[in-house]
Prior knowledge:
One of its GO terms (molecular function) is zinc ion binding. By secondary structure, the protein is of the alpha+beta class. The protein has a single domain, classed as Orthogonal Bundle (Arc Repressor Mutant, subunit A), CATH 1.10.10.10. It contains five helices and six strands; from the N terminus they run H-H-E-H-H-E-E-E-E-E-H. The strands form two sheets. The chain has a three-stranded antiparallel beta sheet with strand order 1-3-2. A three-stranded mixed beta sheet has the order 5-4-6, with no helix packed on it. The chain is globular.
Amino acid sequence: MAIIAEILKSSNLSVTEGRKKILSLFLNANGALSHADIEKEADEKMDRITIYRTLQSFVSKGIIHIIPTTDNSIQYALCKDECSEGHHHDKHVHFVCNECHTTYCLEHVDVPHVKLPAGFSETQTDVIVNGLCAKCKA
């Protein structure tokens, strides 16, 4: 897909088969992906370290963002146009379905402002809502 090469080139990343495969997984995903999800779908030639390094480079370049989970694991999802290298602007709520365990980015649901006490400063605010997604509720 031309869009994959375009995303990688615009982020100043080499267009490799591994990067194309992993980015393709994100573009075709219905929700967030974990390292294990990617490892399952990736080519046998890609080891855990290569996948990890690719994910880290995608995060640092503003291609994907990290979603923390309640079990201290990490999931990843595509960033939108506002993100760039070193500047993530994914200030939206994440929804985790209790039934299918899919994590969704709720792009149009903003993270509420949290008024912090004097002397505190925010670097990141994560809001995760658990429940049933539309597919599982039906």
